[in-house]
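haha ok so turns out i had the wrong file open the whole time. this is the CORRECT one, sorry everyone. sequence first:
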Amino acid sequence: MSRTRVLVCGATGFIGRNLVETLSRRGDLEVHAVRFTRPEYAAKGVTWHQADLREAAQVNALLRGMDIVIQAAATTSGVRDIVRTPYIHVTDNAVMNSLLLRACFDHKVRHFLFFSCSVMYQPRDTPWREEEWDASREMHANYFGIGWTKLYIEKMCEFFSRLGMTRHTVIRHTNVFGPHDKFDLERSHVLGATVTKAMTSRTGAITVWGTGEEARDLIYIDDLVRFVELAIERQTAPYEMLHASAGEAIRIKDLVARIVAASGRDLRIEHDPAGPTIKTSFALDNRRAREKFGWQPQVAFAEGVQRTVAWWRANLGTGTP
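then structure:
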């Protein structure tokens, strides 16, 4: 019996690596992993490919014979770059996704899954539903470039879903955290950076950019991977755009306190109001994913933080006692 051939783009990144490690354990899938500049890693039964997804010929060669394409490749970074050099998130992401979508159509790929984001949403107290945002709304100035790039790709998915046999899933996920995240202070998001600060502080303190009143909706990586598996298994419509979220936001100051507690260290929490931060707070409603795929997050935030700190300690160092 032939196995379904799955191509994971961005397989050396945070989301891509967790996908490869989970999907490669399934006997019904033949997993192919795409890397660009980073080296491949050991993953049993995985076929590795090196490619530049901005080159049409390389994209076409990769997709020939594939059944499912999971697009986790992107130019990403943390708030420092979003504030200071936002253009780095625009051009490459638009080019690689346009080429992948065209190649999926040409090669009659059965299913294309795209990781979008939630930066198009404005602050508010109640969680956003998918149908509540439209192009007439404004978005945060710092997110203008990446936000409209993501929306362009979402619409390209919808466009191609009307032309051929490929099903398209757009996943608007909130902040994801867990093993293999970026933990360096230059490129990481708030949770990864905070874990590193807590585990390596030599001053007895941890510094948080901004006031800490901003809030983020966060989900653990295992829940996002399970979302992908359910979408592959259960989606029947040509196009779906769904939220993958916790459905509630946690304040940054509470997030930091939870990480410090999980670290087991006695650290003061200090604030740097001049540090780069984006003052936005919102959550995404995830009822549609539950209705369509039977998905809902299973890992509570506190448990996810404990697992992340334990992974950091086991893989990146013991921290400073």
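The longest strand covers residues 29-35.
again sry for the mixup
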